[in-house]
Design a protein that fits this description.
The complex is a heterodimer of chains A (291) and B (109).
Chain A: E1 6-12, E2 17-24, H1 26-34, H2 39-59, E3 64-70, E4 75-83, E5 87-94, H3 105-109, E6 113-119, E7 126-131, H4 137-147, E8 153-159, E9 164-171, H5 181-189, H6 194-199, H7 202-210, E10 215-217, E11 221-222, E12 224-225, H8 231-241, H9 243-253, E13 256-259, E14 266-269, H10 271-279
Parallel strand pairs in A: 5-12
Antiparallel strand pairs in A: 1-2, 1-10, 1-11, 2-9, 3-4, 3-6, 4-5, 6-7, 8-9, 13-14
Chain B: E1 2-4, H1 5-17, E2 24-27, E3 33-35, H2 39-48, E4 53-57, H3 60-67, E5 76-84, E6 87-96, E7 99-103, E8 106-108
Parallel strand pairs in B: 1-8, 4-5
Antiparallel strand pairs in B: 2-3, 2-4, 5-6, 6-7
The chains are: A alpha+beta (291), B alpha/beta (109).
Bound molecules: zinc ion (ZN).
Amino acid sequence: MKSNDQIFRFLIDHTPIRGQLISLDASWQKCYQQSDASEYAKELLGHALAAVTLLASTLKIDGSLTLQIRGQGAIHLLVAQATNDRTIRGLVRQSHEIENPDASLQEIFKADKIVITIDNGKGKPHQGIAPLTGFSLSEALEAYFEHSEQLPTRVWLASNESSASGLLLQKLPGELEDKDSWNRLTQLASTITDQELLELDENEILYRLFHEESIALFDAEPVRFQCSCSRNKTSNMIKSLGKSEASDILHEQGKIQISCEFCNANYEFDSVDVKQLFESDMNLPENYTTH
Amino acid sequence: MKIKRTTANKIMGQASSQPDSCLLGILNANEQLIKAHTVEEFKQLLIDHPDSILFFNQDPLAREIKSSIVHVDGQQHIEVFQETKGVFGLRAYLQIGKIQTPVTLELSE
Ligand SMILES: [Zn+2]
């Protein structure tokens, strides 16, 4: 049985090579169902979410990792985010039909870079930029790894309407006992098909790819969909508008309504809520959820 | 770039109510105005509202905060400028590569 919404780490014995396997299922379906973009665009979103979850997990960040591609093309925005708590969220926006699905990502997005932001919660976030190249997100990420000061890394990604899966291999610093092991193992990994990645469980995948190696597989860690939006954050946005702007909106629309682009949550504030916001100068506690 | 005339008026209204201080924020996908006061807030707004237009005035702090963020291709910017004291206007830009290219700002009713 395939393990759902789990990430697995493994080490390949006698080599400084580590890997990770991920399968996003219910967490991915949540993102999939919320999007009205084409199947092609959603497939890319699935790839992006599997990739950011794998990357966030290798980097041991204390915050979030966000991948973003923005352009002027048929797909004009792709955002995928994973946190250190292994929560994910993402969105893809399409403005018109893709004329040629075999075109490069650069043509489909009419964009020339991929931006990866690592936000450790304090100070300036680190932004890595790489040219957007190739025909798939895994190719584009390879260029990113080459351009940034990351460890040599390869990813294989697949997604359909029910799962988004990925495999990552990374070469840790240190001499390779067997100089050819990185090439050999990445070549073996490249034989994986989308279907295998989406349908097989972690043991089957590792056996099919690396049955001649000895592998240490660690316990699974769960992944889930979770958006960081909240009523409290939304309250602070309304406060930032100022009292007169807020009462103008109330006057025009009867209530203030702000919805989240990632999870479609809709936050509504009526005149009583807004009055309360501006009367209490204190910030609301983080888990304030009254509607 | 196209925004509602009422949205343009709101941005200019905000700018004229605070002509000498930092005005920086975003218009979310529904053209709601959300202001930021610090780098952290601004950064968070851009993360939470990726499909937004950012706006800023000519205050040095607004420029500093804005320039501390790497802008991705296709990001839309609106600058509030003040050529004569008290008279405000809006200029739209589109981020293409490293350059913010001026584009026409169309106002819809
Ligand atoms: Zn949300």
